[in-house]
Fold this sequence. Notes:
Blueprint: H1 3-17, E1 28-30, H2 40-44, E2 50-54, E3 62-66, H3 77-81, E4 87-89, H4 91-97
Antiparallel strand pairs: 1-4, 2-3
Residues 35-41, 64, 81-82, 84, 86-87 line the site of one iron/sulfur cluster.
Amino acid sequence: xxxxxxxxxxxxxxxxxxxxxxxxxxxxxxxxxxxxxxxxxxxxxxxxxxxxxxxxxxxxxxxxxxxxxxxxxxxxxxxxxxxxxxxxxxxxxxxxxx
Length: 98
Ligand code: SF4
Ligand code: SF4
């Protein structure tokens, strides 16, 4: 990870420190082969749920990881910000409701 990516993670961990785990269970689905590790989702998450990690199996060498799923409040900011359709929130649950 380069310096900027480490800073994105540090900021996310700072955000998480100020939050409590969510009472609602949310399902975070990653489509890892689409993820280029840009960090937009990590940066936009209001609870510090997501982090970047080195990933040798990714062609970009980096990808997002769900580090603290219990903090996810299901706001979908990550899903909206991702330019590559690589992260979805409660997708299966919503499909079942339809
Ligand atoms: S849905 Fe909201 S809280 Fe959950 S990971 Fe995405 S941005 Fe973070
Ligand atoms: S899931 Fe999307 S927004 Fe998040 S790091 Fe991967 S490509 Fe970027």
